[in-house]
Each structure stands twice: as structure tokens, then as C-alpha cells.
Amino acid sequence: MDELAQLADTAGAQTVARFVQARPKPDPATYIGKGKVGEIAAQNGDFDVIIFDDDLSPAQAGSLEKAIGKRVVDRSGLILDIFARRARTREARTQVELAQLQYLLPRLAGRWVHLERQVGGIGVRGPGETQLETDRRLVRKRISQLNRELKAIDQQRSNQRSRRQNLFKVAIVGYTNAGKSTLMNALTDSQLFVEDRLFATLDATVRAMKSADVNRVLLIDTVGFIRKLPHHLVASFRSTLDETVLADLLLHVVDLSHPHWSEQMRQVDRTLEEMGLKDRSRLLVFNKADKVEHAVEIQRIQNDYPDAELISALRGIRVDALKERLREARDQWGKEKVMSYEL
Q: Which residue among 55, 73, 91 closes a domain?
């Protein structure tokens, strides 16, 4: 619920109340049941929108809006709204628009209920149905157009990747707001946009690690992961996520100051596994270690994860040690590559 409030804040909303419903299974009509709907409706004058932490069917969202009299947004709709606000580049805007239209398509019907005729038979088709069919056709046409644009963008990215195939590539992955972009700036002396909010970065950014070595290390900063990431986004951001798939090493950044960092770490592991990256070489980096108050907790983490690096990207603590680990990984990758050529 705290994370949902953070998402709402990122989207520009202020949380005024929270409701929790315990049911053996979701109510097919309203998801939360008639009693809870009545409880929320009783607060009618105190809020403008109600946000659900799960996805709702179009019918459930429509029933809830009718019963409560307020706009209803589910988790996917909220995240899509945030992505639309954050998209800056042409690629990101195209990916977000595609995801939004795929999300909108099955929900179009409810937008024309006020024009439908409640009768059947030949010759009684209402203007609502006509408009609905028109909208669906326009949305599908736009989806096809966006898919073509993304295919062209993906081809451009493929050309860029081909020029980097002989360079050691490290993808910085992790839960959203773990400090990936801050770490990218610390490792590359860049000035990427950084903000203490969820999903500050949407685009894949490639920079070379600041080093005196001739053989470069390329670092790739990508969109952060989160619980229940909408499948529309995963599909639409395929070309961006391919940067992670093609990396030689994954730098998994964990926000050690977060009270639920271990669950966030497991969520990232599950997402990487879904992307087919379960066995990809990985270096675990615990960021914001300077915010951990008790030394005994640091010692426990070091014992549990002896190969991990504990750093503070913002303050530059042990960033040089992390650079050395990356150079060692690059050198080992180079040796293995030479051996494969010889074989």
C-alpha cells in the first residue's frame, strides 16, 4: 500500500484514505464486494479518484464507477499514466502510446453506454455502437502504425548494437528508485536525470565507464522493475529491454535503505527469470549502504552475500572498488572470448 501511495504521488495525486478488503476470491462484479463498495461510497465527498492495487476488468471498473460516482483507476492504468508523463524520447513516447492503446481497446465499450439503445433487432443499431466500432477500428489502425514505427526503431537499435558487439556491456537492473541512474552517473561521470521518485528513467541510456583503460566498459541504464508490471508495458518496451537481454553482465542494484529490499530483490530476480536471464552473469550491488544505521546489519549482509558490493552511489562510497570489479569482469570476459575463438 505504501508503494501504491508512492505511485499515486508520482502521478500527481495525494492519498487521503486507504481501504483493505479481505476476500477468499475477487467479486466478479465489483472485485471488492458490495459491502466494501458501500463503505467507500460513504466517503464520497473526500476524494476524486479511487486507485486499485490490482488490475480490474472493464466491467468491474464500470460497475465501481457507477456505484461510487468517482473515477476508478487500476494498477496498470496508474503505471501507464506515470509512463506517459515520464516519456521524453520518441522511442519512449511510441512505446507508451502503444501500451496505452492496447490497454484501452477492451475498455472502449463502456465509454459509449450513454448512446446505446436498449433494444435489439434489425434496423435499430444505435449511434453508440456505430461510434464504438469506429473507435475500435481507429485504435487498431493506430496500434498497427505504432508497431511499424517500433520495428523501425528496433532496426536502428540493432545497428547500434552491432557496432558494440565486441565491447563488454553491463546492464544496470533493479527495482524502480533503487538508485540505478545515480550509479550510472557515478560510474561514467554523466549527468543523467535523477529524481527520488518511481520510474524517473524510461529510456535505455548507454555510456562508457570512466577509466584510463583502452578497452572500454559500456554501461546501460534501463527502466526499473516493479511488482505486477503491466504486460502491455513489457511487450511495448521489448526493444528497450533487449539492451538488458544482450548485456554480458547484469549489475543488480538493490536499495538497502528500503524496509522491504529483500522482497524487491526477489521481484527483480523473478522478472529477470521471465526474461530468460536466470543464468546470466550477475553482480549484486547494495546501494545506499550509508543509510543503514546498525553495523551489525551491514555485517549480516556481508556474511549472507560475500560476493556483493556495498556502496553509496550518491556519496561515492566504494564506487572505485565497484569499477575495479567491473574491469576484472571485462578482462575475464575477454579471455573467455579469445578461448572461444581458438576453439
A: 73
